[in-house]
Target: LysR family transcriptional regulator
Amino acid sequence: MRRGVSNPAGTYASCTCAIPCRTIMLELTLQFRPRDRRHFLWFDGAVPRSDTPPAAMISPHTVRGSDLSLRALQALSVVADEGHFGRAAEKLYITTPALSQQIRRLETQLGVRLLERNAHPIELTEAGRILLPRAREILDTADETVSLLVALQRRESRHLRIGFINGAAGRVGRAVLDALHSPFELVHLDWSEQQSAVASGKVDAAFVRPPLPPEEGLALELIGEEPRVAVLPRGHRLAESTAIAIADLDTEVHVRSEAVSDEWLHWWSVDPRPSGKPVRYGPAIRTMDELLEVVANGAAVAITAATISEYYMRNDIAFVPISDIEPCAIELCTRIDDPHPGVSDLRRTVRTQLSP
Model:
C-alpha cells in the first residue's frame, strides 16, 4: 500500500489509506537553489517555510515513517511536556546526555531543528510543533496496537488481568478469586483509573468502588457491601470509640483528592451532611498511603471502607465504624460482550458466590 508519493512539485498523490498518512509517514524533500541561497523545506506538502537552513541537512531523498524511532518520538513528546531536558530524562529513566543525543539524531534524520534549546523553558520550533501532534498519534496507535495483541494473547491462554484499588476486593472479592478457575494476575490501579483501565484493555476486569458514572461499553455488577469507617489519628478524641455517628465528624477537616471526581469525593465524605453543616476539606491526597500519613499527622480525617483496616494496620491510626451511614459497595467492572473466556468464567464465579 502506498502511503503517499512525492513528486517534483512537492505535492502528494491522494491517499486512500484507512489511517491518515500523516500518522504513519513523514516525507521530507529538500531542494537547494544556488541562485538566492535559500533553502526550501516541504513538510507533508507544506509551502516553503524558512530562509534559515536547518542545523542538519539531508540529501534529496524521501525519509519514510518506518525510518523513525518510537523511542525518539517519545523523547520529543516528554521534552515538550516538561520543557526541560533534566526532568524529561528522569521521566524516561535515561541520562540527560542520552536524551539530548536522541533528539539530535531525530533532527539530523529529518533535517530540521525541533527544539529551541536556548529558551527557558525549552520550546518547540515550527517544525517541532508540526511533528509533535503527529508523533503523539503514532505513539497512541502503537500503544493501542500492543494492547490489542496482548489482550488477544490473554484470551487465547484464558489468562486474566484483574485490577483493584486499595482493598477493593474485600472479603467477597477474595472468595471470588479463590473460586475462580481461570489463571489470573492482580494489577493495582489508581483511584482515577478504575473504569478507564478496563475500557483501554489495560486489565480485563476490575473490582471497583462506586459511585462511578455510566460509561459506554462497560458493565458494572454488584459483588457485595461493607460498612464505612472513620480514619482517625490515634490520639483523636473519638479514636477509642466502638462506633460513632456521622455528626461526630461535622467539625473535622476532611482529606480531599484531585485524582477523583467530585461525586466520588463527596459521597465518601458524606457531603452534604444530614445536619446541613458544610464539610471542610483540607490537604489533598492521591493515594491511600498519602491519606494515612495526612491522618496520622493530625492534619485531617477521612472515611473509607472497613476492609482497609485489614490491609493497613498501623499503631498511629484508628479505624472507627460509623453507625448511621449507608455501606459502600464493591462492584465488578468488565467490558460488555468481551469474548475473553476468563471474563465469562469470572462473571459466572461472581454469580455463584452471590447465590444463596
